[in-house]
Structures are given as structure tokens and as C-alpha cells.
Amino acid sequence: MVQRKASINRSTKETTISVSVNLDGTGNTSIKTGINFIDHLITSFGKHGMMDLKVTAKSNDGIEHHLIEDTAITIGQAIDKALSSRHGITRFSYASVPMDESLAEASIDLIKRPFSKLTLSIKRSKIENVSKEDLEHFFQSLLQNLNSCIHLTVKYGDNDHHKVESAIKSLAVAFRSASSYDKKQKGIPSTKGSM
Predict the structure, then answer these.
(1) Distance (Å, whole) CA 17 – CA 33
(2) To which H or E segment does residue 73 belong?
(3) What single DSSP character describes residue 182?
(4) What is d(CA 113, CA 90) in angstroms, rounded to the nearest whole number?
């Protein structure tokens, strides 16, 4: 099997980001963005997606929004690159993941046609010192740069921290399954012969 690994470095006047990913890893992560809750979400994504993920992100302008956005963009691009032609993958998957009183569902098609529908249902203006709009933008930027069709919905919940965490975990579990190799699949999983 082809090794599904990729590394991307993104450097702008706003941020310096380095991401390396191994889709066939064991969930080993090293995440350093300087924003604890974002680190926690990315760690959960790698752990439950069973991918090895190393992320180092540094702000060059002191603006947290730029750091969160660029980190998500770079992770998405690295994973898209590691998927390559997507030869032999399962392609479709879904996952429903609870966290205490909250429940989130993710449905994924790893076709190379980007579309995302996101509903996090966050009520508070901040969660763990990260603004609601920055958390939503983190997810949007990640989904858009995965170059796939993804629907991610928090179905219900009371605690906003739990909602967001169940969302990232459902995304991770669905991605793990969709990106896994299908032993019956002999080529590109599409009637077009191309993703």
C-alpha cells in the first residue's frame, strides 16, 4: 500500500504553520498552537481519526483569528494531499458520537468536490476563551480544505464545550472510516473512474 503521508508548511505575514500527517497512523499527536482549546480539538481529531498528526502554529501578528483559521486550512490541505488520488478507499461514511448530553453526527463523501454544511448550535459567545465565531470558523476552514463533501451537525445538547467536542469526534470517526481502505475496492470508488 502507498504511504498516505503529507507535510505542508504555510508561512504568511500573519502566521507560520507546519503540519505533518500520516493517515495510517495510530492516533499519535503533537499539537502546539498556543491556544489550549484548539490544541484539544485537534488532538481529539487525530486520536479518534487514528491518524498521526503533528501541528506547530505560531502567530506573527498576534491576532488569534488568523492563527485559528490558518491552522485549520493547513490541516485540511495536508490531509487532502495525503489522500492523493483516493484510490481504494471506502469513500462514504457517517458517525454519531455522544458526549454526555450532547450528540453530533458527521456524514462524509471523500469525493474531490468541496461542500460543507455545519451546524454547531453554540449558544455562548466564548468557549474556553475562544470566541464562538472563531470556533465556527475553525470548523468551516477545516471542512472546506479537506476537499470533500461533509455534513456536520450537533443534533442537541446543553453544554457548548460538549457540543463542540462531540462534533470534532464525530468528524474524526467518520473520516477514519471513509478514508480506510476497502479490500473489495480495486480502484477509484466512483462510476466516473475519477474523484
Answers:
(1) 9
(2) helix 64-83
(3) P
(4) 16
What angle (nearest 5°) sits at the alpha carbon of residue 178, between those of residues 176 and 183?
Answer: 105
All three cell numbers of 38, joined, read 484548539
Residue where the block lists cell 479490500: 183
Q: How far, in Å, CA of 93 to CA of 85, rounded?
A: 18
List, for residues 153-184, the tens digit of each pLDDT value. Answer: 999 999 999 999 999 999 999 999 999 998 88
Query: What is the domain partition of the chain in residue ranges?
Result: 5-179
pLDDT in tens, 127-146: 999 999 999 999 999 999 99
Cα(31)–Cα(57) distance, rounded to whole angstroms? 8
CATH code, residues 5-179: 3.30.230.40
With b meaning 16 or more CB within 10 Å and e meaning fewer, what string describes 86-122?
A: bebbbbebebebebeebbbbbbbbbbeeeebebebeb
Instruction: Specify which residues 164 forms β-bridges with.
Output: none
- Region of residue 193 (left: phi > 0; alpha: psi -120 to 50; beta: else): left
pTM, two decimal places = 0.95
